[in-house]
Amino acid sequence: MRSLLCHMLIQLQDGSTAENTRASNKPVRLNLGDNSLSPAFEAQLADLKSGDKHSFTLAPQDAFGEVNPDNVYHMDRARFPADMTLEPGVIVGFSGANGTEIPGIVREVAGDSVTVDMNHPLAGQTLTFQLEVLQELADD
C-alpha cells in the first residue's frame, strides 16, 4: 500500500471552502489501495509524487457519495442527554457497530422529534480538490 501526505483544499461548486488542511496545518494522509478512497479519487492520485500539485473535480458519486435518504433518522428527544443543546446544524456523535464514532447533523427539532442526518456532510456535492503532495510514505 502506498500513502501520500498532502495538503488538501476542498471547494464547493460556489467556490466556498469546505476543508483546508493548510489552515489547520494538519496535512492529510491518503492511503491508496485500501478501499478508503473512491476509485475515481484514487485514480487522480496514482501518478503523484512528492512536490506535485494537482487539481481535479469529482461528481458526488465519485467523492463522498449521493445523499441517501435512508441515512436520515427521526429520533426521540429522550435518546439524547437532557442538557444537550439540539438545534439545526449541531453535530452529534453516535457509536458505530465497530466502535467508531459516526457524526450526525441535527437537521430539525420538532417537539420531542429530532431529525438527524448521518450522511457525510459533503455527500451530494460536486467538489474540486487541490492537492499538494508533501511526502510519499512507504508501506506500513
Question: How many separate domains make up the residues?
Answer: 2
Biggest sheet record: 5 strands, antiparallel
Query: Which radius of gyration do the C-alpha atoms yield?
Result: 18 Å
Number of helices: 2
Helix content: under 10%
β-strand amount: 35-45%
* Mean pLDDT over the residues: 92
Distance from N terminus to C terminus (CA atoms, Å) equals 8 Å
Task: Just name the CATH architecture of the largest domain.
Answer: Roll
Features:
140 residues, mainly beta, Chitinase A, domain 3, Thrombin, subunit H, 5-stranded antiparallel β-sheet, 4-stranded antiparallel β-sheet, 2 helices, 9 strands, 8% helix, elongated
What's the topology here?
Blueprint: E1 2-11, E2 17-20, H1 21-24, E3 28-32, H2 39-45, E4 53-58, E5 72-76, E6 91-95, E7 101-110, E8 113-117, E9 127-137
Antiparallel strand pairs: 1-2, 1-3, 1-9, 4-9, 5-8, 6-7, 7-8
Task: Describe what this molecule looks like in 3D.
The structure is a single chain. This protein is mostly beta strands and 140 residues long. The mean pLDDT is 92. It contains 2 helices and 9 strands, in the order ββαβαββββββ. A hairpin with a 5-residue loop joins strand 1 and strand 2 (17-20). It has 2 domains: 2-65 and 122-137, Roll (Chitinase A, domain 3); 69-117, Thrombin, subunit H (Beta Barrel), CATH 2.40.10.330.
Give a brief rundown of this model.
The protein is mainly β.
